[in-house]
Amino acid sequence: MAFSKYLKALYGAGEPIYVERIQFEGYSRPRIFKELKKLVDSGELKRFDTGIYYFPRKMSYGEASLNPRKVVELRFLSDGNEVYGYVAGISLLNMAGLTTQVPNLLELVTNNETTRVRDIQVGNQRIRARRSRATVTKNNVNTLQFLDLMNAITPSILDETERYMLSKYIKSSGVTRDSVTRYAGYFPAKAMKNMMASGAVYELT
To answer: The domain containing residue 35 runs over which residues?
Structure first.
């Protein structure tokens, strides 16, 4: 199979391709870069950023550029099979319906960050990536995200609507008391105090 056909079969158009993930017939890293350059020079492949490429999707108005959110998701959150990160900070509060504030950067917690916290730019998206307190998996991601939410809220200022939204978020996430007990030790004591003060503990099954 030709190198370009291999990439297209694996990723398709409009999907981020990370060089570090490419494995093709024992090709060395320099050879992979050489093949990628050929595809870029021919116009078949586009370079999004250092080490990130994509096959442009053909649209009625021309070629669509790569969506930065897809790059962010693959790098920090999930590859579609494994889960290794989650949204946190103001973006999480917004997702849970606890604020209407729209953040100017996306805060993420991920296994794929070695430093405690780092700000980076992915396309036009500003990212604050935090190293996960515990290894994130598809089995515990909802629990870790819930505990992060508890660490971020201020129970005393939650109004009736926000308490309802918090209850709705907990029920939809499927977080249990057992799972919270298992991972609570990875978070500051503040998270558990806020969980009690907000009444969120009574929503857990």
So the answer is: 3-64
Please give the full DSSP string across 131-150, using - where no structure is assigned: E-SS---TTTHHHHHHHHHH
Q: Model's pTM, two decimal places?
A: 0.85
Number of domains in the chain: 2
Look at residues 76, 77, 108 and name the one whose alpha carbon lies nearest to residue 90: 108
Q: Are residues 93 and 168 in the same domain?
A: yes
Nearest to 143 by CA among 132, 154, 157, 159: 132
Residue 148 lies in a domain: yes
Q: In angstroms, rounded to a whole number, what is the distance separating the alpha carbons of residues 151 and 63?
A: 43
User: Could you give the CA distance from residue 144 to residue 187 in angstroms, rounded to a whole number?
Assistant: 9
Task: Report yes or no: 136 and 111 within 8 Å, Cβ to Cβ.
Answer: yes
Determine the angle formed by the axes of helices 189-198 and 141-152, rounding to 10 degrees.
80
Q: What is the pLDDT of residues 35-63, one digit of tens each?
A: 999 999 999 999 998 889 999 988 877 78
Nearest to 124 by CA among 201, 188, 170, 68: 68
- Torsion angle, alpha carbons of 26, 29, 35, 36, to 10: 130
pLDDT at 144 (0 to 100): 98
